[in-house]
Every structure is written in structure tokens, then in C-alpha cells.
């Protein structure tokens, strides 16, 4: 099934010839939300509401996000669930009771999702703990981790015309393969949910593990893919090939700048979108107006990506000066923990913004679906 994997270890030109070029392939525009500037609610907008839960996505819709950005894990019994971390972290979740009497796996907090069943995950409260880094978060005590099908069902209730867009990440660990399921199972199970969803043509599939992007294109070339990248996944400290880039080495690509080589690498695997970190981890300051700020996304990276036909949507942008800089460079979208705030700046710049969905309808659908989860 994954024959192209052997090719990606060869020269980038060989990889490119294996896959269709995104420069010749416009992104599918199947819903009206493609008309709007792409303000993405990162993890549902974790600056505002507990992350990756039905409540976070509800408020993202109320706040007028264009795209719901979220993460997927795969449970021990093969369910696609909406959660960012490989494990259930005690900082975000707390145990309530075992899924069944004398369950040897209990307590579940601290364990990997790949080692827990959906029934076990269902008992965990991931809505009560406000994160210290996000002091304005709304909490929803008792909120459970959802399956991807449940999230699609909830949003279909709140968005009956199926107009909102999606950016769905596979949280697979290329460095520690024992922590998550493998590439084949991850992609196959996600695609089974995608293809049966009314939102199938509105989904972008993103990953730091570029092997999954290649595999998804092999399953369905119509799926829009987005190549995530940051300092950690771009290279290894010993100058060996990063396990995240499907066998590619950024140094093998021509060009005077690192940013241009990044864009060429994403293009080589047939990605439609490049989604780099906005800020470099080497930055000693958090803001472009401060001495010591180092961007990871550069003007050269954006311009080269656009020349190659890729869109550019950096993450996770939570400072207005960075948003301003990126908008000046003509990026195609902003992934942020504060979609309501970034949306205001987008409107101030006279860019088209997605509408806010009716609050009463969204909250009614939210309560209905939260009640279903806790029955």
C-alpha cells in the first residue's frame, strides 16, 4: 500500500515525479467558507475554551472561525478520537471511575490513548481543569473526549448547511512508534471517517509526520494535505535525516535560504499547503517588535511556496504583531488559539471573514450532544 515510501528516500525530484503537483491542482472549493480568509481555531480555540472538546468547537463557531483545527488519536479498539496528546495528561484530565469493576488499567490518566479503549476514555473528565497558560479558558466540568464521528454530528447540527471547514491532524509519533498506532492504521481509520462524513470535501489533512500525508494521497488524491513543520521536526541535532519528513533531507533541496528549501520539500511530497511554525524555537523574544525575535516562517518561505502553488498557513499565532507581519507577507490563513481576536484584525484589514453562527442554535446543539455523551 505504501510503495512511495521507498521513493521518498531518493532524490526529491524522484518523489515529485511520483505524485501530482499541487501547483497544477487548485484546492477544492466545495463550500462557501472557502470564500473567507482562513482563521483557524487551533484545538477549537484553546485560549477561550478547554481544548479539543465539543464546547471548544461550539465557541469557535459562535466566534466566527473559518476552520476548526483539531487533532486525532486512535484508541486500542480502533476508534478515531479528538485529542492532541499521545497520552491522557493529568494537567488536562482527571479519572472518575473504572470502565468496569476491577479494571487492571485503572487509573487511566497518564496512559497512552493507543493503550486505552473508547469505553475507558469515556470515563475520564477532560473539562474541569483550566490550563495555567490560558487563564481565560471556559471550563465544562465532566466533558468527555469525543470521537471524530461525534464531532461531525455535533457540527452538522450547529452548521446544517455544512459550510465550515476542517483541518484535522494525525497525532502520530515518528520518533517513538510504540506510543501511537502506525502509519497505515492511522490513515486508514481516519479516512474511513472522512469519506462517510458530509464534510469530506471540506477537510484538510495535516501532519508533522509526512509519511501520513503521502499515504492519505495514495488513498484519495482529492484530500487536501498540509505539511506541518517546526524546528524540532525539520532536522535532527546530529544532522541525520529527520524521521518526520518521510526520508527527505531539507539540505538536498536547492535555494539560498532555509525557508525556500522547506517550501520545495513540502511541494515534493505533493502537499497542497505548507503549515510552518510562525516562531522559531530559537527565538529569545515572543514578538517581532522585540530584540531577539526569530521567525520560523519567513517571507522567503511564503514567496517560494506561493511560486510553487502551495498555500501557507502558519501556526500557532497568538500575538497581533505576528499576525500583522504574516498578513503583510500574504499568508493564506492563520492558525490561532484566539480565533475571535484574529478575526477582528482580519476584518479591520478588510479581508472577508466567516460569519458567526447563531449562538442559541450552537449552544442548543452542544447541550444535546453533551447529554448524549454522558448517558
TrEMBL record:
Organism: Trametes coccinea (strain BRFM310)
Domain GP-PDE: 37-346
Record-linked PROSITE patterns: GP_PDE
One example GO MF annotation: phosphoric diester hydrolase activity
Protein name stated in the entry: PLC-like phosphodiesterase
UniProt xrefs under PANTHER family: GLYCEROPHOSPHODIESTER PHOSPHODIESTERASE, GLYCEROPHOSPHORYL DIESTER PHOSPHODIESTERASE
One Pfam family linked to the record: GDPD
Organism ancestry: Eukaryota, Fungi, Dikarya, Basidiomycota, Agaricomycotina
Biological processes per GO annotation: lipid metabolic process
Domain of life assignment: Eukaryota
InterPro entries the record matches: GP_PDE_dom, PLC-like_Pdiesterase_TIM-brl
Amino acid at each position: 500500500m505504501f510503495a512511495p515510501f521507498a521513493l521518498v528516500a531518493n532524490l526529491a525530484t524522484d518523489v515529485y515525479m511520483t505524485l501530482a503537483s499541487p501547483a497544477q491542482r487548485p484546492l477544492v472549493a466545495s463550500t462557501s467558507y472557502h470564500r473567507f480568509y482562513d482563521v483557524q481555531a487551533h484545538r477549537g480555540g484553546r485560549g477561550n475554551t478547554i481544548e479539543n472538546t465539543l464546547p471548544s468547537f461550539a465557541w469557535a463557531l459562535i466566534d466566527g472561525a473559518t476552520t476548526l483545527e483539531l487533532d486525532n488519536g486512535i484508541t486500542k479498539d480502533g476508534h478515531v478520537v479528538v485529542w492532541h496528546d499521545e497520552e491522557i495528561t493529568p494537567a488536562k484530565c482527571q479519572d472518575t471511575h473504572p470502565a468496569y469493576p476491577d479494571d487492571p488499567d485503572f487509573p487511566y490518566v497518564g496512559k497512552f490513548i493507543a493503550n486505552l479503549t473508547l469505553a475507558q476514555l469515556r470515563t475520564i473528565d477532560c473539562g474541569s481543569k483550566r490550563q495555567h497558560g490560558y487563564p481565560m479558558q471556559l471550563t465544562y466540568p465532566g466533558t468527555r473526549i469525543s470521537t471524530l464521528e461525534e464531532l461531525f454530528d455535533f457540527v452538522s447540527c450547529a452548521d446544517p448547511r455544512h459550510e465550515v471547514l476542517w483541518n484535522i491532524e494525525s497525532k502520530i509519533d515518528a520518533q517513538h512508534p510504540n506510543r501511537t498506532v502506525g502509519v497505515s492504521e492511522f490513515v486508514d481509520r481516519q479516512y474511513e471517517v472522512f469519506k462517510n462524513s458530509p464534510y469530506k470535501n471540506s477537510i484538510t489533512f495535516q501532519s508533522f509526520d509526512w509519511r501520513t500525508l503521502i499515504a492519505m494521497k495514495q488513498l484519495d488524491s482529492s484530500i487536501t494535505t498540509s505539511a506541518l513543520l517546526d524546528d524540532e521536526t525539520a532536522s535532527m541535532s546530529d544532522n541525520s535525516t529527520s524521521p518526520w519528513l518521510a526520508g527527505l533531507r531539507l539540505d538536498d533541496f536547492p535555494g539560498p535560504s532555509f525557508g525556500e528549501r522547506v517550501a520545495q520539500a513540502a511541494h515534493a511530497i505533493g502537499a497542497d499547503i505548507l503549515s510552518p511554525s510562525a516562531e522559531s524555537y530559537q527565538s529569545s523574544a515572543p514578538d517581532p517588535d522585540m530584540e531577539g525575535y526569530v521567525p520560523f516562517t519567513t517571507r522567503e518561505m511564503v514567496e517560494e511556496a506561493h511560486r510553487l502553488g502551495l498555500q501557507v498557513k502558519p501556526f500557532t499565532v497568538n500575538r497581533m504583531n505576528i499576525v500583522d507581519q504574516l498578513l503583510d507577507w500574504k499568508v493564506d490563513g492563520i492558525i490561532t488559539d484566539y480565533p475571535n481576536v484574529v478575526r477582528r484584525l482580519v476584518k479591520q484589514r478588510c479581508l472577508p471573514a466567516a460569519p458567526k453562527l447563531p449562538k442559541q442554535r450552537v449552544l442548543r446543539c452542544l447541550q444535546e450532544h453533551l447529554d448524549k455523551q454522558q448517558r
